[in-house]
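Data deposition worksheet. Section B asks for the primary sequence of the deposited chain exactly as it was used as input, without tags or linkers unless they were present during the calculation. Section C holds the resulting structure in token form. Section D is free text for depositor observations; keep each observation to a single sentence. Incomplete worksheets are returned to the depositor.
Section A, Depositor: J.P.
Section B:
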Amino acid sequence: MRSRTPEDLSGRCPHCYLPSALCLCAEVPRVDNRTDFLVVRHNKEANKSTNTARLAALALRRCHILTYGAPGQPFDVSVLMAPGTWLLFPDAQPPPPGTPPPERLVVLDGNWTQARRMYQRLPELRRLPGLTLPPPAPDTRRLRRSPHPYGMSTVEAIAGALAVLEGEERARPLYELHEVMIDRVLASRGRFGDDE
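Section C:
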């Protein structure tokens, strides 16, 4: 089932986009992260209730979302050029030995096809040093299935990066928030405890 959110957000929380009765904003932790996260979100993801980049931006002190691919809105690639910027993506090139850890991490937000296209269409992304994560366990709960073994939700990927860069304690609240979101989305669909 595809997540559909009314354009006027009727009956929905304007922050988490879930139905008002299932709003999870009270569950959103405040994570005081050191690493800046720059999420490049495909414009077709912006209004989906299952978009987890929105959760990351609510939870992380240092997280900003930019839209890519909106009609008539060119993407300013200069935002990718700041020193100390890395890319979180399975195909990203590892950094040269001795490179200091990233100050800012670019995260592509979209389904696997959208993320792959952004990576291919923005050559500046391919020039960034990369951070890659191991694939999630096959039994990991999902709201959407990925055709790629490394596919995971954006908030999971950010949590994984935080675990690598800043420690598991910093990442745990995001993993927990993701589980709560899965439960609430399934409840909104009249399903409890299972996944798609």
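Section D:
The longest helix spans residues 168-188.
The longest strand covers residues 36-42.
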